[in-house]
Amino acid sequence: MSTIDVLAEPSGPTPAVEVRRRGRIVRDLPLEAKIGAAMLVVLFLAGLLAPLIAPYGQNQLDLANIFSGPSGSHLFGTDGTGRDVFSRTLYALRLDLAIVLAVTYPPLMVGVLVGAVAGYFGGIVDAVLARIVDTMIAFPFMILVIAVIAIVGPGVKGVLIGVPIVAWALYARLARSEMLVLREQQFMLATTALGYSKRRAILRHALPNLLRSSLIYSTLDMVVNLLLLASLAYLGLGAQPPNAELGSIISDGQSTLLSAWWVATLPGLVVVLFGIGAGLLGDGLSDGQLRGRLQ
Question: Is the pLDDT of residue 177 over 60?
């Protein structure tokens, strides 16, 4: 086998070697990344298992316990209609995290693919795609999302359509800049020398390398999207009643913040914990030494 064959088609590790390599990567994760990952896992499991964990229904009324403070029977207290804030927070977390995943990773895949094509081909293809990306990024993100929701209508459907229409552009720009460097690497030049199709060169050889940095960025993008969902719900543009949503719960508790602080504060702390967990995970994964091992 020639040197150029080895560059273009490296022999993959055996399953046993691959398992050991992945185990070593997990062990080598910085402590902050492990803590962040653990926090996110707990929050995702809490949302996923909300129907099993929540002691009450998300809209179950208890008029005898209006604005009851945190206690053994109501961990986060109750709101103005006697609904259990802890149960509503779990169901809201379930809905919000599902939406966050839906508006983060499909745009990531689209953006990385667009950026890879633009950076690989260059010329007129790059110029056209780059101008489209620049146009999308030039407008304020929040305003564009609200404009799309105004056309589609408020609710989950509007969010699922509005956010991805805008979000893919940032991933496309990131992937394009990395592709401009990646296409000059020896293993990419080898694919051309061996006569491999451009489709194979992009999908099989370039994308796995481009996805790494985009996945790291996505940990912070999830926080932005969660805050966006909370903001839209606060404005009445997100999930509509009777669905519980973190932003709407916080909005409902704003007027009673001094007398019933738990209604808005405790669900708000859940948002803060998600942001801290994602931030720690993203910072740990972006560590230069770890990225070197991944590559």
Answer: yes
Pairwise CA distance, residues 31 & 280, whole Å: 9
> Mean pLDDT across the stretch 51-63?
91
Instruction: With beta carbons less than 8 A apart as the criterion, state whether 134 and 237 touch.
Output: no
For the entire predicted model, the pTM comes to 0.82
Contact between 114 and 168 (Cβ < 8 Å): yes
**Which range of residues forms the domain containing residue 65?**
3-294
Return the pLDDT at 2: 44
CATH number of the domain bearing residue 61:
1.10.3720.10
Secondary-structure breakdown of the chain: helix, strand, coil percentages, each rounded to the nearest 5: 75, 0, 25
Provide the domain count of the chain. Answer: 1
Give the alpha-carbon dihedral of 244, 41, 49, 252, to 10 degrees. Answer: -20
pLDDT band at residue 28 under the 50/70/90 scheme: low
Structural contact between residues 249 and 263, judged by C-beta atoms closer than 8 angstroms: yes
Which amino acid would we find at residue 181?
A: V
- Pick left, alpha or beta for residue 30 (phi over 0 → left; psi -120 to 50 → alpha; otherwise beta): beta
Contact 275, 221 (CB under 8 A): no
